[in-house]
């Protein structure tokens, strides 16, 4: 499953892929009537796509009340843990949005699968589209808005630009292979700092294969103001890559830094400096890395930065 990535999809932009998977699995394989499969909830739901390269192989959706549904994986990709990866992404997104209780309607044969993800049976058996189902619920054991194991530096909550910048420097200093930054505009209070520049410079010069990737919405102001990291990218072009997020790709309304496979600093609202720093959270980082990699695949060369680097 090394080539599988999970991303949040857009119902309009990704409609063909989402419909093709659900049509194949539910309507054709399980004989669910089309009028039951398609509903008005789809237009407002958060959709997920599992991709093998550029090929869509699985999907699910999350409603704003925490209900999870339409979980489907194409036949040839079953048994490869694609379904588990999709569900982990859905659960993470639900909790990130404050939906700490999730509910789903599970087919009887799928009960063990959902139990392994922390769901419990919450109803008697009933028929839906002629198929036996039960309701299942899951309650988060971790509120992502709180600090956890602070003394061990596993997860730390912060609420100011200075605290956010200090955690960014600490995370950057522990990087050994990769750093990924997702930012609206190279936020100067966080990144246009000497300590951040020095930490990144040390990282990039430590090994020729070390790589820093940045996805940015608008680099215009950073270029005009000769931002430290723009100038650093000009000097270290081979392993410092900056690209612009595609306007056609659904935007992720967060800002974050990913370090190797266990470090993450994330702010759910880029306009604010409150967030959480994770110092050892492999599962959480893996899901966020999948998001970053999927967005990177659709990103574009930034003309502002390119002209600066020439």
UniProtKB/TrEMBL annotation:
Domain of life from the UniProt record: Bacteria
Keywords: Acyltransferase, Transferase
Domain N-acetyltransferase: from-to ranges: 4-141
Pfam families, per database record: Acetyltransf_10, DUF7931
Name of the protein described by the UniProt record: N-acetyltransferase domain-containing protein
